[in-house]
Every structure is written in C-alpha cells, then in structure tokens.
Design a protein that fits this description.
It contains 2 helices and 11 strands. The protein has a 5-stranded antiparallel beta sheet. A 4-stranded antiparallel beta sheet has the order 5-4-10-11, with no helix packed on it. A two-stranded antiparallel ribbon has the order 7-8. The two termini are 17 Å apart.
C-alpha cells in the first residue's frame, strides 16, 4: 500500500506483504519528511492505549529519497526529502492498533524524534488504509 499520513504530522506509514513471507508477518515502512537518519536499535515506538511497543528496523541504513517538486497554474511546490526504514510487524499487532482507542507513534531519529497520532480516521490517514490492507490480504490467502 502507498504510505498514508498520521494525523497532523510529517510521518507516513505503509504496509507490504508478499507470498514468500511468513503468513503473519507484514513489513511496515515508516517514512519521515526531511533528510534524517533513523536511530539504531528500537527506533519505531507505538503507545497503544498506554502500552509501549517498540520495533527494531530490518534496515541497517536509512533510505533517503527526494520527491520532485511541481510548477504549474501559478503554484510552486518545492522538491522534498523523505527518509524511511522497514520493520517486521505481525498481523496481530496491526489488528491491535486498528482497534485501539488511542495510538501515538514515535520515531527516534539520530538527533531528535517525531511523533504523530495513528488513531484518527481522516480520509488520507493510515488507520483506514491499514483496515483496507488487512481486508485485501485476507482475500489473497
């Protein structure tokens, strides 16, 4: 799935699954706006209704990409950098965060951190996209 926004922040989350992976494993990609190196060890944290759950990246380096800007109709959007790392999470965990009342995501960067709200159901936010993703992979198995 395409990365989807967390509410009111510069964090996006995406999910990926293929037939060669273990049945319950899902790759979660955490994307942050800007050129940032993610911290080593556990850098992705979820506060799920007060319970802290942390994940280590499967990547040894942070992937940094630059998106192209846009010029047209009197509008200029400059190019921007996006940093990302991948994490292995379980289908049970995805169900847990989808059904939780309050989920806050924190990504530790080398020199700072960024936080965002997952438990918000806006049209372009991650939680509704995760629900659609789970329905899609259920039909494929």
């Amino acid at each position: 799935m395409e990365p989807a926004w967390l509410y009111s922040t510069y964090i996006k989350l995406a999910l990926f699954k293929n037939s060669k992976m273990n049945k319950d494993d899902i790759i979660m990609t955490a994307v942050v706006k800007g050129a940032h190196n993610f911290a080593k060890d556990a850098s992705l944290h979820f506060n799920v209704d007060g319970e802290i759950i942390s994940f280590n990246s499967v990547d040894s380096l942070t992937d940094i990409n630059t998106s192209s800007g846009f010029v047209g109709n009197g509008l200029y959007i400059p190019p921007s950098n996006w940093s990302s790392q991948d994490y292995v999470v379980g289908k049970e965990f995805i169900n847990k965060i989808i059904n939780a009342n309050k989920v806050i995501v924190k990504i530790d960067l080398r020199k700072s951190y960024i936080e965002g709200v997952f438990s918000h159901d806006g049209p372009t936010t991650a939680r509704p996209a995760f629900r659609k993703f789970l329905k899609r992979i259920e039909t494929l198995q």
